[in-house]
Amino acid sequence: MEKFFRWIREKNYFSVLRKNRGIVQGAAALMTNAHLGNFLKGTIYTGGAKQVCVPGLNCYSCPGAAGACPVGSFQAVVGSSKFNFSYYIAGILILFGTLMGRLICGFLCPFGWFQDLIHKIPSKKISTEKLKYLRYLKYVILVVTVWLLGVLIVNEVGGSNPYFCKYICPQGILEGGIPLSIANASIRATLGKLFSWKLFILLSVVVLSIFFYRPFCKWICPLGAFYALFNKISFYKYHVDESLCVHCGKCKRTCKMDVDMSTNQSALECIRCGKCVDVCPTGAISTSLSVCSSCKGKSTCKSNKS
Amino acid sequence: MKKGFKKFICIISAMLLLVPLAACGSKDIAADSQFPAFKAEDFSGNNYTEKVFGESDATVINFWYTGCQSCITEMPDLEKTAKKLAEKNVKFLGICTDAGEEGVDKEVRKILKTSKVTFPTLKIKEGEKMNELVKSINSFPTTVVVDKKGKIVGDPILGAINDAKQEKEINERIEKAKSRNK
User: Fold this and answer.
1) What are the two backbone dihedrals, phi and then psi, of residue A89, each rounded to the nearest 5 degrees?
2) Tens digit of pLDDT for each residue in B55-96?
3) Is residue A9 part of a domain?
4) Does residue A241 lie in a domain region?
5) pLDDT score of A113
């Protein structure tokens, strides 16, 4: 197995994917929503694959969705009267997290891609560096709305609502509410205050995404919060060759997630997008699957040996 | 214009092109179609078939499952509705779509007891087309009105029946069902 990974590193195939991140994101979004015909029918796929979660934030109620949303599934289990915690979903998330960490946010999450696309709209881009404290909000959302409220606020039978999905998640409106209500008249007839509230959240995220980079991922996403905890221990990691790094600060200035790669390679906020790898003038930054960009895998490059 | 922005515009316009195509969705619980034949049992041991529709002027059927919190929350409201409808010779039936397994049935009994439900709640025993119909329901709760001859009246009503608008929708369908009987 180790040989295989060394071979991948040496051939540097992964850097091709990293440099074409938009295409990978689009392909991932298409694969997680492969049942395209359902968009026309206004129904959702409910087959066996829906028992398994996809890695990114992708609504179960998206007509095309091939799998379940991890956050939604977790809440569905906690919300049932029988359970207060879902070990099955937590286990799947720990597996994803240990393998990739927040690489999932950068490459596989459809809502991350959506925000990336919105951010391409030409406008003045504003740094979120000064809003750093808002990052901690997503951990509160993870613990409180995804889990605790589901355990504490229950109906007479002991069940509870999926509070995050119901009141906060903009992805549910984008992928579920909007396409289903366009294609299905009965669903359209039910739209009310809750839909307006969620649409307001979605529009806010869209507007903010034009000026800020990935506001939802930085401040709100409970799934990102969970994967963030695995950035330190995941198999997929970033490395900085200290002997090559000149501490010019270029990686920090380039990073849209406000991470200083030269000082902290396992930062919670790093979504492993790889922008720093490409801008590093000395080629000091490498990843677990690819060598630095400047050396192109030459054996003389120190990053090749880490 | 930036290259990235052009790409973005392309993707968005491609998505928008799909919107008019989506306007004609297919429906499994279609208005005026015959409600499929079935054999079912309620939680007091009584048996039901599609012949139940002939016994009253109209039948209101509420589809739910034990994992649907909105369905469980609306049970007391449905009980009130069922009592009101009984005065008008309209029958109210619940169909629990995941019932039939021992663990689930226990949960159903618990839900019916805590919500003080007295209208019959069915578990489907037989009926291939009935199972297909249940499978086609994507949103719960779904409520359907059926006339005396077993024909579905109007589109299914999705979501809890807990406001004036939803109640009006049901009453409209019941009136339509009654007018068909004449």
Assistant:
1) -70, -45
2) 999 999 999 998 888 899 889 999 999 999 999 999 999 999
3) no
4) no
5) 97
DSSP letters, A98-133, are: HHHTTHIIIII-HHHHHHHHHHTS-S-----GGGGG
Total of domains in chain A:
1
Expressed as residue numbers, the domain containing A62 is 33-228
Helices (H), chain A: 2-11, 13-19, 21-32, 37-41, 70-79, 87-100, 103, 110-119, 137-140, 149-152, 163-167, 170-171, 178-183, 185-190, 193-211, 215-219, 222-228, 250-254, 275-279
Please enumerate residues of A whose Cβ is less than 8 A from a Cβ of B. Answer: 22, 26, 39-44, 46, 61, 76, 79-82, 117-118, 120-122, 155-157, 159-162, 179, 182-187, 189-190
**B167 neighbourhood in chain A, CB within 8 Å:** none
Most B CBs within 10 Å, among A30, A59, A156, A193, to test the B interface = A156
Domains of chain B are 27-174 (3.40.30.10)
Who among B21, B72, B139 is closest to A159 (CB)? B72
Q: How far apart are CA A113 and CA A99, in angstroms?
A: 20
- A277 part of a folded domain: no
pLDDT, block means (10 residues), chain A with 306 residues = 80 86 96 93 88 94 94 92 89 96 96 96 94 95 94 84 94 95 88 93 97 97 96 93 92 95 94 93 88 58 50
Q: Is the Cβ pair A186, B139 closer than 8 Å?
A: yes
The pLDDT tens digits of the residues spanning A94-122 come to 999 999 999 999 999 999 999 999 999 99
Which of B69, B109, B133 is the best residue to mutate to test the A interface, defined by the most A CB atoms within 10 Å of its own CB?
A: B69
Q: Do A159 and B19 touch (CB under 8 A)?
A: no
Burial class from Cβ neighbours inside 10 Å (0-12, 13-18, 19+) for residue A7 reads exposed
The ipTM of this complex is: 0.73
